[in-house]
Write a structure and sequence with these properties.
Elements: E1 5-7, E2 13-21, E3 29-30, H1 31-38, H2 44-52, E4 56-58, E5 61-62, E6 68-69, E7 74-79, E8 97-100, E9 104-109, H3 126-133, E10 156-162, H4 165-176, E11 181-189, E12 196-200, E13 202-205, E14 213-216, E15 226-235, E16 238-245, H5 252-259, H6 282-294, E17 300-308, E18 315-319, H7 324-343
Length: 344
């Protein structure tokens, strides 16, 4: 979203921090609840304080907390200071650099690190670290230095960063034309029937929870999305799969696998943080909870990344090992499966 300065009067200058347009399917909903669904990491108290201060506008007019947002309403949050995303601060954050030359950098991002500053995450992000380590990074269309693509906070793995304007344009085009190679490893609930397959279905914001993405198979809403997968290893109640992205939509793998009935293991946002397959025994429940403790995030890792170097035109390919939390979780499932097999 582009942040614009808004002049409410000759004395007051307010900056737009958020702007949302309610969807066609939006049922009447209190504006404070509406914003809770939209703004990640926001607290009810902060939203209500903003409303009380007259900083929440619906169709251009300040509203009270009990105001009902309806379909196609435009909801804006305006504050007296610029968005924190605009105030980028260089931070000495250690980065796992897999490759670097004059044009590009390939980074292995740990789980838990946010890629760029946003609401609730204004420091400690990958971008904060990048601008400390590298000066004069080019900005993308969203004014984010060096970023060509992104992966979720709790997803680990490989990203390519552009160091020059030319590299930024060239890599952005490769992602647009789908000529990059990206393979993820995911642990999903249930036994995936086919050894390999393709999931196709448009992905767009959920009408019910704007922090989630939904799959819209009829193509009337969302953006075209295709995920190819093959089974790597089976563990009775969960399956390790390799996912090759043909497109790169927000939460694509997480939404697609939920859509086919196999949410990612311990994916809180998509319902994978509870027991979805298996027995009712207390020992099994304890085992799964121990797995959740070992891997306190969705089981997803961006394992490989391939692209054409913007200048040399040489095909570059990078592979990153599974992080320790995923390795430990898989070892637990492997031992459990062997134990169950020996008992039967």
């Amino acid at each position: 979203m582009k942040e614009n300065e808004e002049h409410i009067s000759s004395e007051d200058e307010l900056f737009e921090h958020f702007k949302f347009t309610a969807s066609e399917g939006q049922e009447p909903l209190r504006v404070d609840k509406f914003l809770m669904n939209f703004i990640e990491n926001a607290t009810r108290n902060k939203i209500q304080q903003a409303i009380k201060a007259g900083n929440v506008l619906v169709n251009g007019a300040p509203v009270k907390a009990n105001h009902k947002v309806k379909a196609r309403d435009v909801v804006r949050v305006v504050l007296a200071h610029p968005p924190h995303e605009n105030l980028l601060v260089a931070e000495k954050i250690p980065l796992d650099l897999v490759y670097e030359d004059e044009e590009v950098v390939v980074v292995n991002k740990p789980a838990g690190m946010v890629v760029h500053p946003g609401h609730g995450n204004y420091s400690g992000t990958l971008v904060n670290g990048l601008i400390y380590h590298f000066e004069h990074l080019p900005k993308n269309s969203n004014e984010r230095p060096g970023l060509v693509h992104r992966i979720d906070k709790n997803t680990s793995g490989l990203l390519v960063v552009a160091k020059t304007e030319y590299a930024m344009a060239n890599l952005a085009n490769q992602f647009f034309e789908r000529t990059t190679d990206r393979i993820y490893y995911a642990l999903v609930w249930g036994s995936v029937e086919e050894e390999k397959g393709t999931i196709t279905g448009n992905i767009g914001r959920s009408f019910k929870n704007r922090l989630q993405m939904d799959v819209f198979p009829d193509g009337d809403f969302g953006k075209h999305a295709v995920t190819h997968y093959k089974v790597i290893e089976r563990f009775n109640y969960v399956t390790l799969v390799e996912c090759k992205l043909e497109t790169g939509r927000t939460h694509q793998i997480r939404a697609h696998f939920k859509y086919i009935g196999h949410p990612l293991f311990n994916d809180e946002r998509y319902g994978g943080d509870r027991i979805l397959k298996g027995t009712t025994y207390t020992k099994y429940r304890q085992f799964v909870e121990n797995c959740f403790k070992v891997l306190p995030r969705q089981a997803l890792h961006a394992k490989t990344l391939g692209f054409e170097h913007p200048v040399t035109k040489k095909r570059l390919f990078f592979d990153s090992p599974l992080p320790e939390d995923m390795v430990q979780c898989l070892e637990k499932w492997r031992a459990y499966t062997v134990n169950q097999h020996e008992k039967s």
